[in-house]
Structures are given as C-alpha cells and as structure tokens.
Design goal:
InterPro entries: SseB_N. This protein is of the alpha+beta class. It is built from 8 helices and 13 strands. It folds into 2 domains: about 120 residues, Uncharacterised protein PF11572, DUF3234 (Trna Endonuclease, Chain: A, domain 1, 3-Layer(aba) Sandwich), CATH 3.40.1350; about 100 residues, GMP Synthetase, Chain A, domain 3, CATH 3.30.300.
C-alpha cells in the first residue's frame, strides 16, 4: 500500500471505523462516497455511452471496483487499464438494479471496504429523498433556531459544490398563515433548470445529517423579489461559488444525468 495524503473518503472511513455504533459517522462516509469522483475499473474501453465494468466474485457475491484516485487504481491493477470516472451516486444508480456491490480502494488504502449490494440499493433509495418546495403562504420569517450544527456544516459543504447554480441561499425560520412553524432554505437568483439539483443537494445534506427531509423546506426567489429582502434581514446566508466564466446550467457530461446514466453491458 503506497502512503499518500488521506482523501475525504479515507477520513470518513476512519471516523466510521473509530465509532462503529455512530450512525452519523456511517452516514457521513456514504455521503462522501456519493459525492466523490470515483474511478471504475472496466473490462475494456468505453464504447459510446456503454461501459463494461470488471466484475469480481467474492464469497458468492458480485462486486465492481472503484478507487478515489487514479494512482490507487493503477497500484491495484499494476498495469494500464481502462476506467470510467463517475460520481459515486451515478455508479450506485447503475449497480442497484443489477444486485452488484462496490469494492472501494481494495488493498491500496486504509479505506479499503466491500459494500454489499443491499447497501448500494439503500444508498440509491436514500439519495432519492427530497424536501418539499414551500407552497403554503408564509406570514413571517425569522432567524433560524434549534437546528443542529451538523446540518449547518453539511449544508455549507453541499452548497460549496453548487457552482453557478444560484447567487445565495438563506436559512430562515418560517411561520405559515395557519401557524405552522418550520425552516426553509431560500435560494436567490437561481439559474433556470437548476432547481432540482439544488433541492437534491439540500435533501442529501438533511439525510446524511440524520435529519428527516420534512424538517426543511426549499424555496426559490428572484434577486428583486421583495421576499428575498426579508430573507436577507434575518437569514443565515450561504454564498454559492461563482463559475470561472458565465455559463448555462446544462448537464452534458456522460453519466452526469441521474435519469440517464451510462449503460452497463
């Protein structure tokens, strides 16, 4: 095993190993796995939108192998080998219907782990949860209160990857006209078409913080919307990163569309 700088997956795996009864640490590991770019070992070079992962049989179960760095894949194989670079979430979505598990960083990193097929299916189902978009008329917005620090940290981490999808987000408490209290993350200046991606990011921040999706609504507002000014007065602000150059939000990379991942051969 070559000593390298620990990766986010290494750190999350170490935290999970150190606290095997801590559900929060386990959830954080799966969150890092879903968010990370992984290098999937293939039988042969990719053809158009079809890929043929190398499948290994271990104890009567099937696994494909993924690595969180090219160097680790090369160390495991020991020779040039074809691979596909995809997010962990896309790989899980491809595998779940086939009943195939994931071998992560096997034999080449401290985060070496076999993830069985049922855990892959669980991850896909977990990623499908989504918060509600606020529809009730709001009577008041307030400063957020009572939310755990782990959720704030998770939201900050998630939104730091949402480059160019919106200008800001404000976390606020809400009081509906019927008196129901809740919380909302209101996005301001959202790029057309980015709403589902942002809602999914919020959903995952909730889920992997161990919090029910119903604990937080989402809303989308224009920068000149009077309600956006109310959010700015009382809300906890998150600045979303700006792209290097103006661009339209379009998913074009192979495997980037969870509704149309690469096909397994």
């Amino acid at each position: 095993m070559t000593e390298t700088k620990p990766t986010p997956i290494d750190a999350a795996h170490a935290a999970m190993d150190a606290s095997p009864l801590d559900d929060g640490a386990r959830l954080k590991f799966y969150e890092r796995l879903a968010d990370s770019e992984l290098f999937l070992l293939l039988e042969k070079e990719q053809e158009d939108d079809r890929i043929a992962p190398e499948v290994f049989e271990v104890q009567d179960a099937s696994f494909v192998l993924v690595f969180d760095t090219i160097e680790r894949l090369a160390e495991f194989v020991g020779k040039p080998a074809p691979y596909a670079a995809l997010s962990g979430r896309v790989i899980a979505q491809m595998l779940a219907p086939s009943g195939i598990g994931l071998g992560v960083n096997l034999e080449v990193a401290p985060s070496s782990i076999l993830i069985p097929a049922d855990a892959v299916t669980w991850l896909v189902q977990t990623l499908e949860n989504a918060p509600d978009e606020v529809e009730a008329k709001l009577a008041e917005v307030t400063a957020p209160a009572g939310l755990p620090d782990s959720l704030i940290t998770s939201l900050d981490t998630k939104l730091s990857t949402a480059v160019g999808l919106a200008r800001w987000a404000y976390l606020v408490g809400t009081v509906a006209e019927n008196g129901v209290r809740s919380h909302m993350l209101g996005f301001v200046g959202t790029v057309d078409g980015a709403q589902p991606a942002l809602a999914k990011a919020v959903s995952e921040a909730l889920t992997f913080s161990g919090i029910d999706a119903g604990a937080l609504d989402v809303g989308f507002f224009g920068p000149n919307d009077p309600f956006a000014a109310q959010l700015a007065k009382v809300g906890l602000r998150f600045d979303l990163p700006e792209p290097d150059a103006p661009r339209e939000y379009v998913q074009i990379a192979p495997g980037s569309d969870p509704e149309n991942p690469p096909k397994l051969r």
